[in-house]
Specification:
With 53 residues, the chain is an alpha+beta fold. 40% of the residues lie in helices and 30% in strands. The chain has a two-stranded antiparallel sheet. The radius of gyration is 18 Å and the shape is elongated. The termini are far apart.
Amino acid sequence: MKKLLIFFLLRRRKEYFGIVRFRRKNYKIVIEEFVPASKWVNEALHKAEPEIK
């Protein structure tokens, strides 16, 4: 059920943003694609390495 809800909210986008009003208060909802830490750490390390010529 949760996967179906997220699929309809995202509609093939990598991020969803919305504001929901609940009990007279506004809440900001942000759903982003999960990126494992190992993936973004490896990408950051590759970008930080100086290029060898």
